[in-house]
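Hi again,

Forgot to attach this to my earlier email, sorry! This is the prediction with zinc ion bound. I've pasted everything inline since the attachment limit keeps bouncing my files.
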Amino acid sequence: MPELPEVETIANGLHKRVAGDRIDSVWVGNKKEPLKSKPAEIVRTLEGAAIERVHRVGKHIVFHLHPSNDRGAASGRPESHKNSQFIVHLGMTGRMLVATAETETAKHTHLIAKLASGRELRFVDPRRFGRLEVRQTGFSGPGSEPTTITQEEFARLFHKSSAFIKAALLNQKFLHGVGNIYADESLIRAGIRPRRRANTLTTAELKKLHAALQQVLKEAIAAGGSSVSDYVDADGEKGYFQIKHRAYGREGKPCLKCKTPIKKIVVGGRGTHYCPNCQR
Ligand SMILES: [Zn+2]
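Structure tokens for the complex follow:
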């Protein structure tokens, strides 16, 4: 499943390719699972709309739409549709492709938006855990944005929670978009055990964890920047961007700092890796 840095890279790649283009017509498949909004509403919202901007919110790709000058006005789009959004969650295997019209339609294609430029935006998802949704109002997700949250806000989130810190990091009501890999990687960098209760963390520890999480996400986004085209255009199954993992997936291997074997436990139902010596 793509995590925050992958989604950020994909969203940025889509922005570079399709911002300023216009959606002329939309085809929606007959499989119900990927459609969080009604098919007719998706078609009505997308058709004739110009794509102003594409960006990441949590683990969602958000297309900001605007009725285009020539068709929007003529279509009698209600005033409230002026700032509509097309929201895509890739789920496990979802891909958002920018293809030429001649490109053969892949199996498991659930939506095709024909663009004024002649290209097509296609949503392909074999396992159908991805979701497509349209909204007429702003979408910001439930929790705070981990890459920009201030240290003070971050501390305030965890101050009152008695959950394990690992589980609290994954709780989307606190921070949106932090997944298993980046939770483990930020905890080992901050020297904090995954099973510490969030409300037992000192101010200094919370400061370290805040810095570690933002650093890890920043590194992963930077590492992904160069492979945008692969992700958006090709098979989309390149795996995770390679930041050097210190904990995640390294069970039994020596800690890069102290050589103690990395331990694997389960916290909140998720496989969790940590160094029993470096993390307290
Ligand atoms: Zn260690």
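Residues 2 and 92 are 7 Å apart (CA to CA). The beta strands are 23-28, 49-57, 60-67, 85-89, 95-100, 109-115, 119-124, 131-135, 263-267, 270-274.

That should be everything now.

G.
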